[in-house]
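Hey, I'm writing a tutorial for new members on how sequence and structure tokens pair up, and I'd like a real worked example in the thread rather than a made-up one. If someone can provide the structure for the chain below, I'll link this post from the tutorial.
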Amino acid sequence: MNKLTHDNLLKARDFIFGNSGDINRAWFRYNFENEDTAAFMDVLANYQHENGGFGGLVYEFEYQGPCLVCTEMAFRYLFYLKEKPPADHPVIKKAIKYLQNRYRPDVGCWGEEMEPEVNDGAHVGWMGYDPNSYPPIADEDERIRKYKPNRQAALAAFVALYSELVPEDLYQDIIKYPVKKILRYYDKASPLYGQSETDGSFKSDIHVPYNLKCYNQFVSCLKDEGLANRLKAILLQNPTACMNLDKNKWQRSFEDVACEIVGRPESFLYPSVTVEVEESLDFLVNRMNENAEWHLRWRLGSGEAFDRLQIKYEAHLTMLYLAILKRFGRIEL
């Protein structure tokens, strides 16, 4: 078992604190210095806009206003807090209100996750605003087939975690689509298994790494334990289908390795993919460079704006990887 040295942890801290904003500094302090939930929430609140949405938490575009992409990133932080904020916390109440207002029953999800202003500044090609990406879908079965778990299921997890703040009929509509998507297209006993594709980069939805990562959060936040256990059993039928297990390819695309998908040892997925997760943790430790940093193998884009985004993204990535290694006990503290 490889572990990150304490010296490298301190070097990584310098990189993070010197090249990223308050949220990454606060996440480092939470994970490695005090685990003070209230202090972290105070910092997170500074990224929340009046309408309840979050901005400035994603580094693949310049736009700093509220959007669903950054709101999902905010939930990622909340998901890994050991002590979850109560439902009456102002940040939680505002965020749930934002999600209620943005939800689109006509497509069974939140629809377009970007704002038009994203296109006005520097942004990576896969993060642009497209007003035509989510046309209304009249048929419910078609909504289920076209449901994109990537990011949408994580937003549904946020709502599930604080379901007491949402009207029951709206809550049931929100969870219906990720639940039925799993039942119909992820269950090997279903005649529709593997027959849904919402990302042209993969053969089917079961092969998209981020889908399982979001479903991992979703089923973990459901308060109906019977339903959650049923869905977990289905997702455990083929948990490595979306995992890149070719170690020769990890050098080129290491964001999709097993430890990122599973996220924490308490995950229901971990016992079934322990070997894969532990090997990917070894890889992360070995992948850190001599300056105790993790860098992308590609450029986000060319020009000064992308240069600024690149360094912020890589400092953020370094912080995310440190948090993963900490949760799995892979850092000498």
